[in-house]
Amino acid sequence: MLFRVELIKALFRWRTWALAVVLGGIPIILVISLVLSSQPTPSGDDAPPFYALILRSGFFTPLATLAVLQVFLLPLSASLLSADAVAGEASLGTLRYLLARPVGRRRLLLSKYGSAVTLVTALVLWVTVVGIVAGGLVYGLGPLPTLSGATLSPLGALWRIVVAALYISSGMAGLAAIGVFVSTLTVSAPGATVVTIGVAIVSQIVDSLSALRIVHPYLLTHYWLAFVDLFRVPVSWSAMTDGLVLHLAYAVVFMVAGVGVFQRKDVLA
Amino acid sequence: MSAIRVRSLTKSYGGQLAVNDLDLDVEAGSLYGFLGPNGAGKTTTIRMVLGLVFPSSGEVELLGEPLRQGAAALERFGALIEEPGFWPYLSGKRNLECYARAGGSADDRRARLARIDEVLEIAGLEHAGKKRVKAYSQGMRQRLGIALAILGDPEVLVLDEPTNGLDPQGMRSVRTLLRTLADGGTTVFVSSHLLSEVDLMCDRVGVLAHGRLVAQGTPAELRSKSERVTIEVNDVAGARRLLGEISGLHPVGTPNLEAAHGPGAGRLSVRTSDGLGAGAINRALVAGGIEVSALIPEHDSLEDVFMELVQGEDEAL
After folding, report:
1. ω before B263 within 30° of 0 (cis)?
2. Residue B310 in domain
3. Is B122 in the A-facing interface, judged by CB distances under 8 Å?
4. Where along chain A do its domains lie?
5. Rounded to a whole number, what is the distance in Å from the CA of B152 to chain A's nearest CA?
6. Which range of residues forms the domain containing residue B88?
7. Does residue B165 belong to any structural domain of this protein?
């Protein structure tokens, strides 16, 4: 029941809609900029490889959008939605009333986590849909050329894009668990948000330093771009499987830690 | 049965004792006033009773059940803890609905909505239910807090300073509401730093100072606990010595010698307890050979008693 209450509350917050508008605007901006520039975006070493081929199919718009958003705006959304869990309710003064209903502390935290993951997944799917529509309107939804040279049918491209969106969401779910955990440590929701997004950024920086390669496989963000492997023929699943396991491990570890902290915590706010 | 039973409850925050070895019994069906100056430990006690703060030691029993996390007994409680807490972006009505559903009360939607309308009306917010809480005045928020506390038709109401932020008329309507609920069988445990409030409505009063319960009883008992008699005698020093030896009589204050009618004569204020009164003082003085020219019993207000109890505790520390 609490899970549904969380979703209802989110629907009545302008913040939720602002996120949807901002994120949904990105694929549109992307398409507009592509139309305005006759040349494809020059692709540097860091840019995801589809940039070079971006004009050939409308399916590239959602993929490019997801790759761009995954660096910062999606982690920011996941941080905002998850770091509110305890800290946000504490600063509103609603936490004590929820707990006195009584709502069990573990149930409260799990419902909060569930709703944060649901909302961030909904946002990922939303930008994917906007991307497909925007790209489709401008470039049409024709077959999609891939990195391995083969061309995917529109249907084959579509399911891969949906799987990519869900895979990206799993990475966000790992980050959201960190957000919920941090949220149990403070009564400041903005503080918890900053710490959580900070974790995602630092993780990406460390991941780019080759001298620290020994820790790379354990970084939350290390496998985030592995969804690119979906667009090889045949699909290479190994990196994505490692990524899913890692995201799940983060989710479990931080939720267990969060519940442990929260169940011993005096609620003074 | 006790609605709330607390035994040797202690809570320290980093070595600072907020609540110190507190015993408390709130009888089911009573309207219990929990009195104390700000910082006495009232809120900490209430938070421990509701399972928000964990005691350093001691026990809490709610309706005969030991309190554990998310204890079922809490479902039969309603609470207002310091400030009311609401989601500002939701309407008053939807706030109550979110709380009702979060608590997992499984009753059907129609019954739930009917109950929400009912408590909004009791709280005098029937026309503001659709308004966002953001736009509420402090008094309206407080009244919505009271509506939330009674939403689940609780057996026990725990209210921390419920009349905060209300105008005199609002305070009065809250007092009337609490009295009505208590008369209908609801146990009400209400904290306040306002004596007049507690005096007006409570069946029993507990006085907390520095985390300890310094007195407990009906308002009348507390008042009689410490009656004062002003005496006028011909030998103040002698009267003071004589009365000081009798347990239950406590000469207090500086003898007022300005009213003297002779050397050593004057007025003295004596606090009485243990059922002793003006008669006992008179008998003792006359037997001791002291001339009594006046005996004036003075009923203290609860406020005087309270100040004395709290100050006595201050001096003891």
Report:
1. no
2. no
3. no
4. 2-41+48-263
5. 9
6. 2-222
7. yes
A 106-145 → B contacts, CB under 8 A? 107
- Total number of domains constituting chain B: 2
Which residue of B52, B75, B85 is in closest CB contact with A94? B85
Whether A100 sits inside 8 A of B94 (CB atoms) is no
Phi-psi region of A136 (alpha: psi -120 to 50; beta: other; left: phi over 0): alpha
Q: What is the pLDDT along chain A (269 residues), one digit of tens a residue?
A: 789 999 999 999 999 999 999 999 999 999 998 888 755 455 555 555 555 555 668 898 999 999 999 999 999 999 999 999 999 999 999 999 999 988 999 999 999 999 999 999 999 999 999 999 999 999 889 888 887 778 899 999 999 999 999 999 999 999 999 999 999 999 999 999 999 999 999 999 999 999 999 999 999 999 999 999 999 888 999 999 999 999 999 999 999 999 999 999 999 98
My answer on whether B93 and B169 are in the same domain is: yes
Closest CA in chain B for residue A14: B89
B13: β partners: B16
> What contacts B109, CB < 8 A, 6 or more positions away?
none
Of B51, B84, B98, the CB nearest to A9: B98
Nearest CA in chain A to B83: A93
Q: Does A158 touch chain B (CB under 8 A)?
A: no
Instruction: Out of B197, B222, B247, pick the residue that ends a domain.
Output: B222
- Check CB contact of A95 with chain B, cutoff 8 Å: yes
How far, in Å, CA of B300 to CA of B91, rounded? Answer: 47
Pairing label, strands B31-35, B16-27: unpaired
Domain CATH code at residue B286: 3.30.70.100
Q: How far apart are CA A219 and CA B189, in angstroms?
A: 52
